Each structure stands twice: as structure tokens, then as C-alpha cells.
């Protein structure tokens, strides 16, 4: 069994796996909480904080926020979030990551942008075994419970029993 995230809409290879779409992951602009609270007038242009291999996101050209031309590059997602916390700029993490951090805030008026699709993959005949089937049902139930959070439609995590 595998949980896969893909930025394509076609989904993963279907020849050896049973493939089930598990949801959409969306992202939104996030800034340090203190910058969001003090956004009056036209503040200085914000600097994009990007993972080196990813570059500036496509949604950057939509003009939601004034940004500096040169991004601040980091090596991974953890460093990206740490840089935003320190007030070095803005970024577009998945909503469930940015919203869970009390030091970050959504940029008021910014739009949701597609980040990728979650796929639940089960291999061939193993998907028919009781243990895999039960776990797949459990995981599907949990993913559907958290779907609004992952899709950026709510900022709060649902209360669920494990």
C-alpha cells in the first residue's frame, strides 16, 4: 500500500496497482503572523522563499502580493517554513502545513492554488487480503475526514477518535 502525491491529474501508473483518488492538496500564501496583523497600506515588497529545486510558484505571477524579484532559496520545506517564521518573506505551503503553524498566517485575500493530488495505491492481489482491505478502509475514512483541511477549505483540524 502506498499514499502518493502527484502534481498531475492523470494519476500514477494503473497497470499493477489499484488506484483510488484520495483528495486534492491546495496551498495558499502564508506570511509571519506579525506581518499579516500589520498589513496596512502597501507594505514593502515581500521576498519569495522557495525550495531551490522548485523555484517561484506559478501563482506568483497572479499579482496577489507585491514581491521582490529575487527569491530567497532554501534546501527543503522545513527550512522554508523556518525562514517564513523569521520574517524573511512569503511562501505557499500546503494549507494544512501553514495553517497548523501558529506563527504563520494566510495572506488576507489570497486565493487557493492547486498543489497536487493524493492517490491511494494498493498492489495487485494484496488489496484483497483482509488486513490490507481494513487498513485501506481506515485510511480512506481518515483522509475523507481531513479532506477540507488538506484542501484548504478550513483552518481547523477535525476532532476524531483513533
Describe the protein in words.
The structure is a single chain. With 162 residues, this protein is of the alpha+beta class. It folds into 2 domains: 2-23 and 115-150, no CATH class; 29-111, 3-Layer(aba) Sandwich (D-Maltodextrin-Binding Protein, domain 2). 24% of the residues lie in helices and 24% in strands. The protein is built from 4 helices and 7 strands, in the order E-E-E-H-E-E-H-H-E-E-H.
CATH topology title of the largest domain: D-Maltodextrin-Binding Protein, domain 2
Determine the structural class based on helices, strands and strand pairing: alpha+beta
Major sheet: order of its strands?
Answer: 1-7-2
Number of strands: 7
SSE string, helices as H and strands as E: EEEHEEHHEEH
The total tally of domains equals 2
Strand content: 15-25%
CATH architecture of the largest domain: 3-Layer(aba) Sandwich
User: Tell me, what's the shape?
Assistant: elongated
Name some characteristics of this structure.
single chain, 7 strands, D-Maltodextrin-Binding Protein, domain 2, three-stranded antiparallel β-sheet, 4 helices, alpha+beta, 24% helix, 162 residues
Briefly say what this structure is.
By secondary structure, this protein is an alpha+beta fold. Helix content is 24%, strand content 24%.
Break the fold down into its secondary structure elements and pairings.
Blueprint: E1 2-6, E2 17-27, E3 30-32, H1 33-37, E4 49-51, E5 72-74, H2 77-85, H3 95-98, E6 104-106, E7 113-123, H4 130-150
Parallel strand pairs: 4-5
Antiparallel strand pairs: 1-7, 2-7, 3-6
Amino acid at each position: 500500500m502506498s499514499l502518493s502525491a502527484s502534481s498531475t491529474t492523470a494519476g500514477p501508473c494503473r497497470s499493477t496497482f489499484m488506484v483510488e483518488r484520495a483528495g486534492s492538496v491546495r496551498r495558499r500564501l502564508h506570511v509571519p503572523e506579525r506581518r499579516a496583523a500589520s498589513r496596512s497600506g502597501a507594505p514593502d515588497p515581500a521576498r519569495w522563499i522557495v525550495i531551490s529545486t522548485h523555484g517561484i510558484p506559478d501563482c506568483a505571477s497572479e499579482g496577489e502580493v507585491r514581491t521582490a524579484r529575487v527569491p530567497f532559496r532554501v534546501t527543503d520545506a522545513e527550512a522554508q517554513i523556518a525562514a517564513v517564521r523569521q520574517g524573511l518573506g512569503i511562501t505557499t505551503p500546503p494549507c494544512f502545513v501553514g495553517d497548523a503553524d501558529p506563527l504563520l498566517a494566510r495572506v488576507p485575500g489570497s486565493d487557493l492554488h492547486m498543489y497536487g493530488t493524493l492517490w491511494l495505491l494498493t498492489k495487485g492481489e494484496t488489496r484483497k487480503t483482509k488486513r490490507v482491505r481494513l487498513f485501506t478502509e481506515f485510511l480512506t475514512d481518515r483522509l475523507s475526514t481531513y479532506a477540507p483541511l488538506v484542501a484548504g477549505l478550513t483552518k481547523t483540524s477535525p476532532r476524531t477518535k483513533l
